[in-house]
Amino acid sequence: MSARQLYILVLFLLFGNNAMANGFSWQQEIDSLLAVYNEKAATEEPAESAEMLSLLYAISDLSLRLQRDDVDKYLQQYDTLARQVNNQEALAKSSLLFTRRYLQLSDYPAMMQKARLARTQFTALQRPSGMVRATVRMGQAAEFLNQADTAFSYYFEALDFADTQCNAPYPPDCGVALCMANMYMANLFYEHNMLEEARTFLNQARAVIEDLYAKYPNNNDVAYEYATLLANMATISVQPDHIEQRIDYYNQALALFRQVGYLRSIVVVLHNISALHFSSGDNQQARSYTLEAIEIARKGQDPLLLLQSEIMLARLLKDEGRYTAAHDILQKAEKKALHGNRTRALSRIYAIQAQVDSLNGKYLEALKHKNQFFRYQNQLLNKERGALIRTLSDQVSREKNRKEQALAEKDSAVAESNRIFRIAGTIILILIIISLGVISYLNNRSLKRQRELALQQSRVDKLEHEKLNMELEQKNMKINHKNKELATMASRLIDRSEFLQHLRDYLNAEQLSGDVSVISELNRQLTQQERLTQDLEEFQLYIDEVNQDFFYNLTQTHADLTDNEKRLCALIRMGLSVKEIATINGVTENAIRTGKHRLRRKLDMHDQGNLQEYLAHF
Predict the structure, then answer these.
(1) Of 164, 196, 408, 531, which one's alpha carbon is 20 to 30 angstroms from that of 567?
(2) Domain count, the chain
(3) Structure pTM?
(4) Quick count: other Cβ atoms within 10 Å of Cβ 468?
(5) Which of 225-239, 259-273, 473-487, 558-572 is predicted least confidently?
């Protein structure tokens, strides 16, 4: 590209952005792009493919927005050039552009096919935003093919793509794609009267796009998507009778659409605001917005939007009683609609014209226009019915072909299965005979082995049983021996304790002063007292050793017993009296009685039952 051409292109882009911001038409932008493109195409030197691709993409995009008659030519040129230079990203964008074109042509099967191709291409390129947009187009195609469940599935896939491939904070391309997926999901739920779900997805879209717009306020794609969200919120998030709030959302959307210069969206929003003012009885405001819509549609050279705006104005004039002005506008609108073969617009024009004629007292004219209204209304119904029939016919045809193909494949599979079955049957029969012989041999061998193992196991069990009995007898003998030793120790301790008591009595009876022999005797007895203390400690250790199992079982039931209380339980279990237990422990009988009373409370026996018999069970 020459320096002069590059300067022209940059100048155009700057002018185009400023022009759109001031409300000028897309037509001016595409005319400037076409001028640059034609100049480049006319030069003898070969043009740079990347520059030409960029130009053709922008021209194709705007042609789609304006629904120009030559849109197919530029789409094809862009696709051809992308194939020639083998630019994979351009090919993916081309597929996505074709989905929009097929949407305009109502060729939804072709739209679905191109959308699937676009998703595959963007997936190979690892372009998350393209993957999301392509999947959304698949959902749109499914919607128009009356496949609501499939549409839901594709929209959910688009959201999954966006969640997994796009990470917050989102760049503009991913954020816009994620917002778009959420909005389409919200609209689908809204169409199925699932308002809560619709509002949930709309709020998710709002959270993403508001954050994006705060970061990128000058990005046209972000601003356009935010404006689209606000327009959707006016419809979905606000109750129908909250007209002021709906108008407020539409006004916010309108401001953003003015910012990016999308004239078609500006006119559509003006229509919606005008309709809301009209429904609330504010005809003056409604007429003001409608006149503005007419002016912008005229600047944008969009005949369909201009025609729709003029029809709205005629309806407003009719309701204000200005029948002549309404009649004049309707006549001009009728000529435009007839010239453009706008069936739906003609239907609305004749409906309003019939009302105007009737209010003017022109009943014959009103009847004529009413008949024309019915004629075009029938055409619309027939057209919609025909489109539906064609869609259903295509679906039936595809389903029929699918079933025929499936049936043919099934017949082929059945024939092959029969042949294989005959061969397999012979082989299986031989294998069964061999298997029966092998199984019979193995069963006999297994039974013999089991009998031998059972006999060996019986012998082992018998030996183990005898061994356990011997161990149990030895343990019982050991326990009995220890119990005898424990009884002997207890008896010895009791005897010594009684002896000490006797000694105390003796000491109390004698006069110790100056008596050396008595003092000597006292020292000897004190020495024996020390031995008695050692014997008592040994006795307590011996009680702990002999009664390990008893203590363990007792603790499982009464975990809060102290060591002294457990030893008291062992002595009671041995059948010792209160006096004997007091003598062994060197305490008073009252102390032992108090200990037994506390022990009964801990054992939940209180004063009932025999304590020795209760403890004997552990």
Answers:
(1) 531
(2) 1
(3) 0.53
(4) 10
(5) 473-487
